[in-house]
User: Fold these one by one.
Assistant:
Number 1:
Amino acid sequence: MTGPRVAHAPPAGWSATAELPKPKIAEASGASLVAWSAHRSDAGDAALVSGCVATPIPGWVEDMRPAVEGRTIALAGASAAAITGAPVDARPGDGGVFELRAVSELAGPPIGHARTFVGFDDARVLTCFATCVGTRATSSPRACDASVAAARLEGSLPPPAAGLALRGATWAVHHPRPTALGAGVLAATLAVVALVTRRRPRSRIA
């Protein structure tokens, strides 16, 4: 495919599979799954999946990053939940890798690990992930854990420039007092203009 993608090396002996479920995407927002890769261990007790979801944006400002990163983490967790069939919790671990645990066993060992990425093409933000998940929790490393730790994002472009409307909205958020003052002055100016330019009724002298 062209555009950003997650590059990783599956463990030796693991096979590509089309049987693993893909995470559900909110397509009503214009989002689409533009990359997907899935591998399973020979024993069938662990899986390695990766993907990228592209969403159109009107440009980029850094204020958008926390929300986008949060959505990317949720996507990695959803990919694990789709495989295990149960809700998954993702929490930061070492080296930028998230630890995945079953929601029913938050105090137990992880059922997997994930790494997330934020990338861009000409007009979209891409939320990408690599997830290693097993059928049971264990404190021992899985073969695909190393694949997640070494995963990287390739093909990402610089963020698309923000348009005038987006830059104006961002400035208004960071400068609420001048924005409120400017809105008040504008309203007063428009009221005066409307008063001066209003049509006057014609008077008739009998």
Number 2:
Amino acid sequence: MTTWQRILPADAMTVCALMEAFHGDRLDERRRWETVDRCAGPDPLLEGWLLYEGIEPAGYAMLCRGYDPALARETMRLEELWVAPPFRRRRTGECFLAALPGLYPGCAYVEVPSAGSAPVLRMLGYRTEAPALRAACPERK
């Protein structure tokens, strides 16, 4: 079963290992730790999620807050989503993307870059609004 939780300071080692698997040498250790600290802390712009399959960490996601002046509402943009290879055929990423707009009630939308995954994202309710795909968030209760 796919689940997710916001990245907490206690998750730092796990998330850094996942980031290293994704980025390899392109992102040095200092930058990985800095990014995880921001995702797990009170950063007003960056937020992270740790994805699980059962109790195993399966991947992570990082989102940035934005603002759409035309709608006068906050927005969220997916900056990075990575799922470890053993979990890719289990729809881990799709489950998270389908639930993502619901994690931000009151936001105008969640924006996801369309690189290569547009057909899957459209099936999950995202709509093309160049250069990305967007899904409306539910109203805040």
Number 3:
Amino acid sequence: MAKTEFWNQFGETILESPHLTLAAFLGHDQSIAVAKQHSIHFPKTADFQIDPAYDPNFHKLDLDEESLNSTFLILCISAWGAEALVRAVNACSLLQCMHHFSCSSNLKSLRNDAAFTLQTLIDMPTMEVRQKASGLLRQCQNTYRPHEDDPNSDEAHLAWFHLGAPWFGLETALGNMGARRDCGETEPAPSNSTWCARETVWPDRALDAAAHWSSHAIVRATIRSTLVAWAVSHGDTR
């Protein structure tokens, strides 16, 4: 297993206080105060920046800074596991539906169904809901498939960005159902740099799609506020 340097330093405290450390990392003042009061060592941005596993531009390409900041946030969130990533993409999905008023008429129903079912899957992950989500995911994939050999075409662009975050959210949620386990290893899945790289691909695409209809800054802020609210609601702030 390619264990991250970050996990060696913060893995134990994340496992012991997952919601508190996540909220503190995301800047929630009360969580930061509680963590300090109880000497809980939570990570800061700089702690991720020194680990190559969380480098958003490992190959040093000429990429947009806003996009890199978004990819970095998703990589950081992956340290808290699959559920945090799924909730992040759900925030992207809902935000796209709020900002994307001009969705293609022949894609709007599928996009909205995907977004609604993603939310339902999080709230009520029954086999029936999972089966519906799987069916909608196949519809999204099949809609794009005729254009995947020409991804720069208008048709590919339309399907990719109009289905966007709701589609990529389903990819994340259904793919991560198995990733919630420890992948057969002695260490949790988020400690594995390969897992982090693999499981952040669709969340990163969801963020980018949502940002296409608003901005990267707005989407990052929405993800942060959504995850803080979720983490605080779990009450391990003592």
Number 4:
Amino acid sequence: MIKKQLLSVALSTIALAASAQWTLSGGHVGDRQFTEKSSGVYELSLPGDTIYGRFLLKNGDNIRYGATNTYVCGGVAYTLASEGDSLMMASSIASPVLTLDTNAGTLTASGDVQPLYLFGNFKGNYYKIYKDVSPEAYYEGNGIYKATDVQMHGNDLTVCQIVSPPSLIGVASGDFIAPYRFSAVERTLKWDEPAAMEPCVRLAEKNFSLPEYFALIDVTINMVDVTFEATPVKLFNFDLEKFYAIGSNISNESATSRWTDTGCTTGLLMDRTEEDGVITFSLSNVAIRSTATADSEDPRGEIEFASNLGSWDEIYSGYCWGWNITTDTLTLNTNNVAAAVLRDTGKWTAPYSLPVGKYDISVTVREKAAMQFRAVQTSTSAVEAVKADEVDPNVPIEWYDLDGRRIAEPVKNGVFLRRQGQRTQKVWIFSRN
């Protein structure tokens, strides 16, 4: 819940002209004039607006007043300088009321202090900066923001302001611009030790890196000192028992997994083992199916991993691991092995694509490494689901070669695929001559 706080900003001992017309100036609000409420006291109310990012104060003589220290924080004295840089909000304030007291040399802003947001490798959110999924660090006063029980699914993260209008940081595309993202001065954090933050430089971003992966953490952001601190609640917080391989049309001896526009209700349950702190999910004889066996779906050989089955909302509410946004096509090395890093990207999860064939697959989870996916191709044949479906004898028979090409009824010796309804068989044809 967003907390209402007071922003008390103390002006320096520089002489402020009480008779001047004071103006708040910023690209997001334009020039807004204060109204004199009493001798030397001015007020500016912006109901329905949000103040964020950079701004400055100026008087009627166009003398600019800026900052000597870094970020304007709720309830923290802030010193101005006559020729300082622009002021910078620590986070946005909605519907602010700003009172400038030139007698006391203070600026006070009240309103709804908005949270800061974490951006990085989290459960259900791999580097997405969206209000509905990004972990929020709420303001607690004195320049301190806190986020609790943040579930990491990797080890990289950083801090962002989400400002209004959203297009300023490209929320629609998950993009961002400086100075609304903060990054690391030193790349690797130490637990419970504050590390300095600095504004991001576009195309030269540096993320914070935690000592462990999959940690459950609390985060403290101090926007007075401009530091970031992470505290582990549980170092290796990965207790998942059931993990399914799901795909556009994949199968093994017990099931066939097909996803649709509404979800995926059948998955291939993976075997789970744990030894020396390493968790491995594995599955043998997984068939990445071809055109010949691919019902009405586009047979792209796609595969990803999930803890839940059902509608896509139900799948995304659990763990959903794959790649980020778009399908990544994997190639096999000389040992017929494909390997990749898996990301839990929630509703943006995209699958990996593998060549047609049979595979032994595994997913490995370690405390100090990213989740790894490995697929070993054991056969290049187009293969059918071993568990046969009931067949309607009235459904026409279709024939395919082993490359998945549709053919007429076989006229020569060889091995062919015979499909009738949901059932596909590999058939050896021998002539009688």
